[in-house]
Amino acid sequence: MTSAIKERPRNEVPYTLDEPAPKVLSFWDQGAFWANLGVSLFAFSGAYTVLAPDADGKPGLSIVAGIVAMVVGTAIGGLMLGLAAAPGAVTGKPAMVLLRGLFGARLSYVPTALNIAQLIGWGTFELIVIADAARALWDGVPRWTYVIAAGVLTTVLTIWPLGSVRMLRRYVTAAVMIALVYFYVQLLREPLPDLTEGSWGGFWIGADAALAVSISWVPVAADYTRHARSARGAFGAAAVGYSATQIFAYILGLLALALVAGDSTKVFDPFLGVTLGVLFFAVFVLREADQSFANVYSTAVSIQNLVPRADRRVLSIALGALITGLALLLDIGDYASFLSLIGSVFVPMLGVLAVDFFLGAGKRGTWDMSVSAPSRWGMIVAWAVGFVTYQLINPGTVSWWAGFWQDVQEAVGFSTQSWMSASLLSFLVAGLAALVIGRFAPGGDGGGRSDGKIDSAAV
Q: Where does the record locate the signal sequence feature (predicted)?
């Protein structure tokens, strides 16, 4: 162990969880990292989701209404992301280790396993997106070539994660901003249709779609902010950096969608059709590797919650090979619904974590994040209440799962309303349940150490 510590660069992530996390990321390092994650090819190809499309794919919102819904949803999601980021900076612990303090060590293994499953899925999805987008630029080589190249690049980035974050700030962020501005200028010169045509019905459905994209990063936020120099910087960089660029990218995606008459399969065409479009779009394709990097690195760190002495470098290489193989073999479209279902468990979990960390046991200094942390069933109950709330409002599209919750809706006489946001309401309900349970059981459900105590000066 001693030799491993000596060999590791001082400003890089420790190889195991037994070593302390260096506090080396500035506000600007983090802001650039989150800003890059806010710009994704999915923001273009998936922009139609904020238009609240019906079962036939027909948009329920006008482009203008969709933009407003997206801005509202992203702003709320950004604040939630900031709430997930701050505890990592305060404690120096990664996201899944924080759950030891919230649920207890053994109970934290359940969400950890779910997080590993969804991150492997999203990592695979990102390699497929990169390969497909690269083929749209140039299809002169087989698709598998792009998949393998993206997998190798992703793996290399995960070996030196903090160095990769700093590299993104120095070189990639500026190129991405230039490409975004260039495409705004070019697309706004095109003859756009009437952007107000359509309704405002389903506004909160569209807002919830944008919010859900922001929330997808909640289970990994502390993996990076544990290296932040301050909790305030971690909160602000995540909340503002991510929200600003996601809004910027989604509006661009909606403009492109308007130019192709709402056909999401052709949403890349306006980018590739303008002067120098191929060159600037290539910036987005290369930058997409930071999405797969974040997924793979956080998978390795999540596994370390189960096996604290596992070397993250070995895990990263193995995971990079795994998602590359999956991207070559699988049709991710068949898995997307399950990824959405798994991801929904983390929205109410954030409500429980935020309330308990900032107002409950964490504030009292009784969080225990050791490998022997006692189980906290009260917080599990609060999480379950929020999860049920989410599923009652939005059971998803997996047929057998959605059918079950529709039966529950009928049994309890619950009817979903258009103003209901599954993400926002489940977050609030879970947080309220955690607050009530924590007040009634402040001692018996709070653990017994001060690892998670909030330093008011830091926050």
A: none
441 vs 348, more confident: 348
What's the CATH number for 17-333? 1.10.4160.10
Q: Is the pLDDT of residue 458 over 70?
A: no
Contact 222, 94 (CB under 8 A): yes
What are the phi and psi torsion angles at 228 (to 5°)?
Answer: -75, 150
Give the C-alpha distances (Å, rounded to integers) separating 81 from 34, 216, 265, 392: 10, 9, 30, 24
Query: Which residues have a Cβ under 8 Å from the Cβ of 7 and sit 6 or more positions away?
Result: none
d(CA 280, CA 272): 9
Domain boundaries, the chain: 17-333
Average of per-residue pLDDT values in the chain: 87
Question: For the ranges 11-25, 80-94, 96-110, 323-337, which has the lowest average pLDDT?
Answer: 323-337
